[in-house]
Amino acid sequence: MGQPLENRYSQQEPAAAQVIVVLGGGSVGSVPDGTERGGLMSAGAARLLTAARLAKQHSLPVLISGGQVFSDGASEALIAERILLQLGLPQEQIIVETQARTTKENAAYSAALCRERGYKNVLLLTSALHMPRSMQFFERYLGEQGIKVVAYPCDYTLNPQGKFNPRWLVPQLQAFDITCMALHEYVGMAGAFLQR
């Protein structure tokens, strides 16, 4: 069920990109993180590590999009900014967008920041399962402004060349989790299509 989502886009070379837009993937506001409070959930952490690597390799700024989704949470973008700084990315290479609570808002608020800064080529970085829905919104909101969006999926959950393994016959919580995430994305894509 998740394979068609994860295989829809491949990682594109960021050569023409002017900025990496990385989407939040969840945070927990009150957990300890060294001397700080607040941590990223696994999808958000995987996205951020990929963004940090690409930013360093290609000297690109990183626009982190993600606000406080739940009242007991914290701004994903502010936690991600702190982590990028701790990983050695300079402050001037980090742009923070803290209002978005949904993928649609990620696209709308990121589009405004890209327009303000004159970016015309964006590398969109998010989990492979989430990329098709993200591209629906980003192509709509940034495309309207003449901004080109290129996909860079990461945080893959499925092996595209997976060969049958007998242990797949045993029910696994991870498989159920991936199915739930895929269903969430399909419903979200249908909703995005209907919002046109």
Give the tags.
196 residues; alpha/beta; five-stranded parallel sheet; 7 strands; 42% helix; globular
Describe the secondary-structure layout.
Layout: H1 3-6, E1 19-23, E2 27-33, E3 36-40, H2 42-58, E4 62-65, H3 76-86, E5 94-97, H4 103-117, E6 121-127, H5 131-143, E7 148-154, H6 173-194
Parallel strand pairs: 1-4, 1-6, 4-5, 6-7
Antiparallel strand pairs: 2-3
Helix pairs in contact: 4-5, 5-6
Question: How do you describe this structure in short?
Answer:
The chain has 196 residues and is an alpha/beta fold.
What does this structure look like?
It is globular, with a radius of gyration of 17 Å. The protein has helices at residues 3-6, 42-58, 76-86, 103-117, 131-143, 173-194, and strands at residues 19-23, 27-33, 36-40, 62-65, 94-97, 121-127, 148-154. Helix 4 crosses helix 5 and helix 5 runs parallel beside helix 6 (173-194). Strand 4, helix 3 (76-86) and strand 5 (94-97) form a beta-alpha-beta unit. The mean pLDDT is 89. The chain starts with a helix and ends with a helix. A five-stranded parallel sheet has the order 5-4-1-6-7, with helices on both faces. It has six helices and seven strands. The longest helix has 22 residues, at 173-194. With 196 residues, it is an alpha/beta fold.
Low-confidence stretches: none
Query: What is the makeup of the main sheet?
Result: 5 strands, parallel
Helix fraction, binned, reads 40-55%
Give the total of beta strands.
7
Structural class of the secondary structure composition?
alpha/beta
Mean pLDDT score: 89
| Quaternary structure annotation | single chain
The count of helical stretches stands at 6
Order of the strands making up the biggest sheet: 5-4-1-6-7
Radius of gyration: 17 Å
Element pattern in H and E: HEEEHEHEHEHEH
In percent terms, what proportion of residues is strand? Answer: 15-25%
Q: Termini, distance in Å?
A: 25 Å
**Shape estimate:** globular
